[in-house]
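Input sequence (208 aa), recorded before submission:
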Amino acid sequence: MSGQFITIEGIECVGKSTNAKFIESTLNKKGYKTLVTREPGGSGVGEKIRNILLFEKKDTLSPMTELLLLFAAREKHINEIIKPALESGTWVICDRFTDASFAYQGFGRELGFDKVNKLKVLIQKDFEPDLTILLDAPLEVITSRRKLNPNDRFESEDRKFFERVRNGYLELAQIFKDRIKVIDASKDINDVQDQIKTLINEMVRDKL
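Predicted structure, token format:
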């Protein structure tokens, strides 16, 4: 594939969407065509699943139901959106991907690493991001940035849940240390984006 696949991970309020746009702008200035997408979502079906996962109030979703819905959306996303874009030479920037399933369902919902990994192998086979940027910050920083009225089911979770999620992300960064690069998102936005730009410049140099 001639394009590169970059994912951005982290718990709520660490600046994923803002920095996805920053990466897009950085690459566009270098002459690269880009696509910014997100999970859950990305495709028509994926966006419908996103609404069920985040905003469905009538039914309680079990952790396994969440996980299966996420991978159903991901299968469509990979095969109908991400891979075709990469094959056309587009650099794809995705706000969350499979690492989020490990962190939120595997660690946060306590389903465990193995259950998530089995679905990952089934759906993705050997398909992986070229780079994952993990924006990490202490929970105190996140709490200060969160809205008083949470927008969705995940934002309304308690501190212990987010502790498990954050710790899960940091464990993943050790397991996949060649792919996942951790950036301290509690620092000034300019400092964060300087670090991101360094990673992107390294990718571009390696691509040449």
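Checked by second reader. The helical segments are 16-29, 44-55, 63-87, 98-108, 113-124, 139-145, 159-175, 189-207.
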